[in-house]
Amino acid sequence: MKTPLYKRVLLKLSGEALAGTKGFGLDTETINKIAEEIKYITEKGVQVAIVVGGGNFWRGRSGEGMDRTTADYMGMMATVINGLALQDALENIDIMTRVQTAIEMRQIAEPYIRRRAVRHLEKSRVVIFAGGTGNPYFSTDTTAALRAAEIEADIILLAKKVDAVYDKDPHTYHDAKKFEELTYLDVLKLELKVMDSTATSLCMDNRIPIKVFSLDEPENIIKVIYGERIGTYIHS
Ligand code: UDP
């Protein structure tokens, strides 16, 4: 029987990933499908922490003419909506879940407490980190890098709309080159749009590997856990 490659993973789900083909808001079918894959890997003994994005509702930079800090706080709120939706989908299929927010909202979720998050993981509960880092001017990719370092995750699983990292946009250029493997320095030097540079530097400094792959293909989370050669592997 195959054994999972990782013991503890940090799955980053962008808001877009939860919107399915709609591109905005939440798509129940898509979320349920993701929840099933998460259930599968937790049942194989993998500890799963999740950082959710908010781009399916709001991004700080969408707020034209708005105060940037206010717009960013709105984005952080959007991630909480996504976190609760994901919690609901997981609990519907009997996966114990805790949402922890970087900004306190005690009536709806626990505040982020690292030791508590680790304890939940050890008890096979899925921990969803919402509210980003709690600070404006950051992204949920940076949150993923930060939380992965804090909980000592083995890898960040970066689920995207594209199936791997390319040297240019594969939707626009048919000769775009796909990378199977990259170093963080390559990502920074070639200015590849994997994560923002803050997130990439944080991963590089803390030697956290990243696997970039698409959620559009069925069972990709499971394939990654078993080491199938899909997507792009980024390391130091
Ligand atoms: N955000 C923030 N600080 C953080 C994380 C997120 O201010 O630590 C805000 C920011 O405005 C961002 C929005 O929340 O645009 C949604 O997050 P993100 O764009 O990373 O979501 P994704 O693209 O992954 O859906």
UniProtKB/TrEMBL annotation:
One of its GO terms (molecular function) is UMP kinase activity. Allosterically activated by GTP. Inhibited by UTP. One of its GO terms (biological process) is UDP biosynthetic process. CDD domains: AAK_UMPK-PyrH-Ec (cd04254). ATP binds at residues 12-15, 55, 59, 166, 169. InterPro entries: AceGlu_kinase-like_sf, Asp/Glu/Uridylate_kinase, Uridylate_kinase, Uridylate_kinase_bac. The keyword Transferase applies. Pathway: Pyrimidine metabolism; CTP biosynthesis via de novo pathway; UDP from UMP (UMPK route): step 1/1. One of its GO terms (cellular component) is cytoplasm. It is found in: Cytoplasm. Residues 7-214 form the Aspartate/glutamate/uridylate kinase domain. The keyword Nuclease does not apply. It is an enzyme of class 2 (transferase). Its EC number is 2.7.4.22. UMP binds at residues 54, 72, 133-140. Residues 20-25 are annotated as: Involved in allosteric activation by GTP. Keywords: Allosteric enzyme, ATP-binding, Cytoplasm, Kinase, Nucleotide-binding, Pyrimidine biosynthesis, Transferase. Catalyzes the reversible phosphorylation of UMP to UDP. Belongs to the UMP kinase family. NCBIfam families: pyrH_bact. Homohexamer. This is Uridylate kinase. It comes from Anaerovirgula multivorans.
